[in-house]
Amino acid sequence: MNNFKIKSNYTNSFYDISFYIPEESNENNLPLILVLDGGYYFDVVKACVKQQRQASAKTGVNSAIVIGISHQEFEKKEKRFLDFTAPADKYIIDEKRKAIIPENLGGSEDFNKFIEKELFPIIEGNLNFDKNNTTIIGHSLSGYYVLWNLLKGSNIYKNIISFSPSVWWNDYELLNFPNLEKSNKNIFIGVGEKEGYMVDGAQKIYDKIKNFNKNCTIYVAPEENHGSVVITSISRSLRYINLFG
Questions:
Q1: pLDDT at res. 29
Q2: 137 close to 84: Cβ distance less than 8 angstroms
Q3: Burial (Cβ within 10 Å: 0-12, 13-18, ≥19) of residue 98
Q4: What gap in Å lies between CA 114 and CA 128, rounded to an integer?
Q5: What is the DSSP-derived secondary structure letter of residue 114?
Q6: Is the pLDDT assigned to residue 207 strictly greater than 90?
Q7: Distance between CA atoms of 32 and 55, rounded to whole angstroms?
Q8: Opening angle at CA 162, ends 158 and 164, nearest 5
Q9: Closest CA to 232 of 242, 244, 222
Q10: Is the pLDDT confidence value at 1 over 80?
Q11: Among the listed residues 86, 73, 75, 11, the one whose alpha carbon sits nearest the alpha carbon of residue 38
Q12: Regarding the domain delimited by 4-242, which CATH topology (the fold level of the hierarchy) does it fall under?
């Protein structure tokens, strides 16, 4: 299956879709890893899986199909804030961020529909994968988005990897979401030691999720920052979720 561009009828946006399909995918229903902010991180996750799957018993990283979703470069900033933030009656934005945050926000429900009703049917029609073993990876705003999906009760993903989640968004609204009665996801939260208040936010959302989801871990990466934490910690995150099959 080749890389392609798709326009969503739900978000009215174009996305670049990238694929890594291991040779053994024709013989097995492999796990599926969906990488948000694919322009930044698809190649990172692809390289990690491609290299380490060859000795998975030693590396702890299993073979998987990797799919990246990327916004168009010229509108990336605006569309990330639209697609990765949840609807709200109002948005509380501190003064230092008002100048850099776009006007259009709260499109995460439509972005969900794009993935579930437009992208996934294409994938299902062309690839053999284990529908019960899907992973979504997000960083920063998309790290917030994947945790929002969890807290709203979405069941499409078995595994959730969130790096440096923007827990601060809209006055820490995720911390005020009601806890789920019970959740059986496998959740990895990673943050760089040098990310300041982001470390505190990651710890607080971990403490919240741990109340209703047993398989959850947090990793504060020594000496790492907002820009380096994904690259240096992706192997650790994949090893964690692979512990559970």
A1: 87
A2: no
A3: exposed
A4: 20
A5: I
A6: yes
A7: 19
A8: 175
A9: 222
A10: no
A11: 73
A12: Rossmann fold (3.40.50)
CA distance 191 to 2: 33
Residues near 139 by beta carbon (within 8 Å), at least 6 away in sequence: 36, 37, 40, 41, 162, 163, 164, 229, 230
pLDDT, tens digit, for every residue of 17-64?
999 999 876 667 899 999 999 999 999 999 999 999 988 889 999 999
Which amino acid does the sequence have at 108? S
Q: What value does the CA radius of gyration of the chain take, rounded to a whole number of Å?
A: 17
Residue with tokens 């009665």: 181
Helices and strands: H and E segment counts in the chain: 10, 8
Contact 130, 29 (CB under 8 A): yes
The mean pLDDT of the chain is 95
Structure tokens at 186: 């496998």
Domain segments of the chain as ranges: 4-242
Residue type, 103: E
Sort 50 into a burial class: Cβ within 10 Å, 0-12 / 13-18 / 19+. middle
